[in-house]
């Protein structure tokens, strides 16, 4: 137990600092968790969109007996398709491969039903996620049809529209919850800092009454807030990293899948923790610097 007034004040100061750090850590941990969910939800959304492939079928007006000329013509057409800005990946499917795929899809093993390769050669086109937008997909199909050597393009427009709208709806809700938690983080950290400064309001006013300038009074509080914000942010990031490592190790996925986005999330968490802590400290301290002595008893 504290034996003197100084010991008591130091003990209360440590307790106050620990409370602020824990508050910052917990809140930023939740903000970071929703950030990770949003990043990976976007990745999963892009992955789902990439499964909505478009089939471009070759024009077969060439003489079937001139296989070399046909193959060369298809290779040229395939190369043109891969050069398009909306194409993420393109896979050439020969007539023989199309027949094998048809057998698998129909569950038929009997070669008698497929005496010859009756299915046309095609290109399976995987679009970039941003071009799966229903407003753009029709234009993509039109451009594919305009490529010389392509006879027809197959695309399930309704399925594309349904998947796109559902995924965007989910991402919108996750983004909304992330913003909500960011607001909650600002409010909670601000309240913790205000309570901490409130306990020192008489010290602040006493320093001001003996002639200390406002900047001189503010600087120690700002430095302390900066340190507390950094400590709270690092603890929150460590807890978040530990949870994410455990989760990814359990499901067998890489710990870091996109370095740029993860680094950006870490920077955001650090900036949020430091900025809110410092800003709240300045506003709370400035409030007592502007108040009268009598107001300190009713604040």
TrEMBL record:
Annotated membrane topology: Multi-pass membrane protein
InterPro entries: ABC3_permease_C, FtsX, FtsX_ECD
Compartment(s) of residence: Cell inner membrane; Cell membrane
Domain (ABC3 transporter permease C-terminal) ranges: 176-292
Transmembrane segments: 20-39, 170-193, 225-247, 262-289
FtsX extracellular domain: residues covered: 74-153
Keyword Cell cycle: yes
Source superkingdom: Bacteria
UniProt KW keywords: Cell cycle, Cell division, Cell inner membrane, Cell membrane, Membrane, Transmembrane, Transmembrane helix
Similarity comment: family membership: Belongs to the ABC-4 integral membrane protein family. FtsX subfamily.
Chain's role: Required for cell division and gliding motility.
PANTHER family registered for this protein in UniProt: CELL DIVISION PROTEIN FTSX
Record protein name field: Cell division protein FtsX
């Amino acid at each position: 137990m504290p034996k003197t007034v100084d010991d008591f004040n130091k003990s209360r100061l440590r307790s106050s600092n620990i409370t602020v750090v824990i508050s910052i850590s917990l809140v930023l941990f939740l903000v970071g968790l929703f950030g990770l969910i949003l990043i990976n939800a976007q990745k999963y959304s892009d992955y789902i969109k990439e499964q909505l492939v478009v089939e471009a079928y070759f024009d077969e007006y060439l003489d079937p007996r001139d296989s070399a000329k046909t193959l060369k013509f298809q290779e040229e057409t395939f190369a043109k398709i891969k050069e398009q800005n909306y194409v993420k990946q393109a896979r050439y499917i020969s007539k023989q491969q199309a027949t094998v795929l048809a057998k698998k899809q129909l569950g038929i093993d009997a070669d008698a039903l497929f005496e010859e390769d009756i299915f046309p050669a095609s290109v399976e086109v995987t679009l970039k996620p941003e071009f799966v937008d229903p407003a753009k997909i029709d234009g993509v199909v039109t451009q594919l049809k305009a490529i010389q050597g392509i006879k027809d393009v197959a695309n399930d427009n309704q399925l594309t529209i349904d998947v796109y709208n559902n995924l965007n709806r989910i991402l919108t809700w996750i983004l909304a919850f992330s913003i909500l938690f960011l607001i909650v983080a600002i409010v909670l950290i601000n309240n913790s800092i205000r309570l901490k400064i409130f306990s020192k309001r008489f010290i602040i006013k006493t320093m001001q009454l003996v002639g200390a300038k406002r900047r001189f009074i503010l600087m120690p509080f700002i430095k302390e807030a900066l340190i507390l914000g950094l400590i709270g942010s690092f603890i929150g990031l460590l807890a978040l990293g530990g949870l994410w490592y455990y989760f990814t190790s359990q499901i067998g996925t890489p710990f870091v899948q996109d370095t740029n986005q993860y680094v950006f999330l870490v920077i955001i968490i650090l900036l949020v923790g430091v900025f809110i802590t410092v800003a709240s400290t300045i506003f709370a301290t400035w409030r007592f610097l502007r108040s009268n002595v009598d107001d300190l008893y009713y604040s």
